[in-house]
Amino acid sequence: MSPVQTILCALDGGRSSEAAAALAADLTERTGARLHFVHVDPPPEPTLTAAPDGRLDRALGPEVHVVRGQAPSDAVLRLAETLGVDLVVVGTHATRGLTRAFAGSTAAETVRRARAPVLVVPEASGPGSGPGPGPARPVLAAVDYSELAGAVLDHASALAAVYGAVVEPAHVLQGGAEARPAPLAAGLHPDGAPQVWAARVLRDFAREAGLAAETVHVAAGVPGPTITRLAHERHAGAVVLGTHGRTGWGRMRLGSVAEWVARHAPCPVLTVPTASAAASAPDA
Fold this sequence. Notes:
The chain is α/β, with parallel strands linked by helices. It contains nine helices and 13 strands.
């Protein structure tokens, strides 16, 4: 993953915008990136200029884009392409319990269509207002062994480094306890409990990607709910996973795994699109 140089944060005038803007501003301060805000008409309300520690006040000055006559998701995506941003930050609205207003929302459309990584921030997240990555809150990297697996670990490592967090790779075995992880290293064969064996494969895969992970997670189940459960159990500060991958978990009946996790996770979710796989690949 290249250093983040340009961030675009979408504002909609709600509390989710405040959380997204605060986290985007915090990332900007930590990385030295250039921060852009976009709001689709009407312009942002004055209350959006208040944030923990005044971060949003300082960050709003440089680049604020107000777009009229476009659907919010179209405006965000077009501006992201025009600016060539490295990261898009969007908020989601809490509705009932852990279910969020996600399907059909600006966040969902951005995750589905963006060529840059997208950081989806729930209302309760953001500096000073909720959990985020840190020494006690790991970054959970959900690996499905698709063409995006290496990019997911790369982005997870970069995000963890910014916040002094550790990365914990995770893989979901589908098809019950006898499931096998998808591409296997030559010479590896099951020799005991499938989950123990799968954890060894995952640890080796992470090591080959340059990540010495002390803790890995392997669980059997449906990918979206299982990753969300792990995020709760590990008190994760963020979840990183791929979207648009064609050889991994694929699409679930109610939407992609990435969309499911972004809708239900208790923490920010960073989705990595297919376009990031080539950017993360080593030079030939």
